[in-house]
Design brief:
The chain is α+β, with helices and mostly antiparallel strands. It has helices spanning 2-9, 22-25, 42-47, 88-102, 121-125, 145-158, 161-167; strands at 33-34, 72-75, 110-112, 118-120, 128-130, 135-137, 169-170, 182-185, 191-200, 206-212, 221-223, 250-252. The strands form three sheets. Strands 1, 2, 7, 8, 9, 10, 11 and 12 form an eight-stranded antiparallel β-sheet that branches. The longest helix is centred in the middle third of the chain and has 15 residues, at 88-102. It starts with a helix and ends with a strand.
Length: 254
């Protein structure tokens, strides 16, 4: 024990690296406190998604600095992939898919293609492969993470803002905004943001953190404007596609 303590004092033994997330990195503004979330929910999971070390740049799938770098408040520690696929809607689906996979809710992992085809993970994990809006049995059963990522890559290839917008449920009461909600406009181009955390004051006014990917595919990026990462429905969002941060574009996963 004395040897270990001495090594730590001398800096010869590194201490465990603490993982940062949106709760630990982004403290609520003055007068605001953390909104409650249900344990085990998508909201709770998003709050604990690891972030890359402070100061990490937003990079494209090619390893270049993304054109959205100026808006970077933090980077979610998830892979971007080797192809120009994990863009805006894809990043939202990636987060949702990762949550469900981590909970082993395999039968809930499902996204619709723009064509309307329902692409569910259970079919894919059981060896079926997509062909012209049909499943064809071609492979062995595999519920492993690498196969899950191959499934998500398939989803990225055929789904987008148009399909995701149709899948999500409209939030009729914006004051109920919560972590995991999505601001989305389908189209070519369309765009979307996902709410990564929500805080509120005594009068229940809410502020929230937003994340996105972009074109070309890039890191999933926590956003800020002039070093302020907290957005509100009561104030304009001075970021690219900031006009979408309004009640009319607010959607939610079932």
């Amino acid at each position: 024990m004395r040897v270990i303590l001495m090594l730590m004092v001398l800096g010869l033994m590194s201490s465990p690296v603490k993982t940062d997330n949106v709760i630990t990195r982004f403290k609520p503004p003055a007068g605001y406190k953390q909104s409650a979330v249900s344990p085990g929910s998508f909201s709770a999971w998003l709050q604990t998604v690891p972030l890359k070390p402070y100061g990490s740049q937003c990079l494209t799938y090619q390893g270049k600095v993304a054109r959205t770098e100026a808006y970077t408040a933090g980077i979610v520690d998830l892979s971007v992939g080797q192809y120009d696929l994990q863009q805006c809607a894809d990043a939202v689906m990636r987060l949702r898919g990762e949550y469900l996979y981590s909970q082993k809710k395999y039968d809930k992992i499902s996204f619709n293609f723009t064509s309307g085809f329902r692409c569910d993970f259970v079919h894919y994990a059981n060896g079926y492969r997509y062909s012209n809006d049909h499943w064809i049995l071609k492979a062995k059963k595999d519920y492993g993470y690498d196969n899950f990522m191959r499934y998500m890559t398939l989803v990225f290839s055929y789904a987008g803002t148009l399909s995701l917008q149709k899948e999500l449920k409209t939030v009729s009461n914006p004051s109920s905004l919560k972590t995991g909600d999505v601001f989305i406009k389908g189209g070519s181009p369309g765009h979307c943001f996902i709410v990564m955390n929500v805080v509120e004051d005594a009068a229940h006014h809410k502020k929230f953190l937003l994340a996105q990917s972009y074109m070309p595919a890039q890191s999933i990026q926590l956003l800020q404007y002039q070093e302020n990462p907290w957005f509100s429905l009561d104030e304009p969002a001075y970021i690219l596609y900031g006009e979408l941060v309004s009640p009319g574009y607010l959607k939610r996963f079932e």
